[in-house]
Specification:
Elements lengths: L9 H6 L2 H10 L5 H20 L1 H16 L7 H6 L8 H17 L1 H19 L1 H24 L1
Helix pairs in contact: 3-7, 3-8, 4-6, 4-7
């Protein structure tokens, strides 16, 4: 994931007043690319661990079984959602959405995903104190730079 870039287009620059342009330059968001990359990597790691966790795979299996009870065959809710992309407001799409939601509630799919993700996030934080400190430092620096800009105005 690349750090965000300040848009140098004429449209963007003209949309900002002189103060906004100066403030954006002083904040220099490119300085925080490492922190943003760390967050992106952590999110990817946690997501990969979570999706393979037996509690999540079991909940997905229970969801698929529930959906089959109503005549639908999907591996996961994303597949169900994408299957409606051609006619998202049709009666059959709405019926599928209600069934999907009902099955997710019945098997507590989202609750399971959130709990598992929370656990892996906590483990990542505990196992990466240096990276967490780097994130804190970057946020503190960014906040201090923003406050400095505000104090000058």
């Amino acid at each position: 994931m690349a750090p965000p870039q300040v848009d140098d287009s004429a449209e963007y620059q003209s949309a900002l007043d002189e103060c906004g342009v100066e403030s954006a330059a002083e904040l220099d968001p490119s300085r925080y690319g490492t922190a943003q990359q760390t967050i992106g990597n952590a999110n990817s790691d946690v997501a990969a661990q979570s999706i393979d966790d037996p509690r999540v795979t079991s909940a997905l299996s229970a969801w698929a079984t529930c959906m089959q009870e109503f005549g639908y065959v999907f591996a996961n809710p994303d597949d169900a959602w994408f299957s409606t992309s051609d006619a998202p407001t049709s009666a059959s799409s709405l019926e599928l959405a209600v069934t999907d939601y009902s099955c997710q509630r019945r098997v507590q799919l989202e609750e399971t995903r959130r709990a598992v993700t929370r656990e892996y996030t906590q483990l990542w934080i505990e196992n990466n104190p240096g990276l967490v400190q780097g994130l804190r430092d970057a946020l503190a620096d960014f906040t201090a730079r923003a406050q400095s800009i505000l104090d000058q105005s």
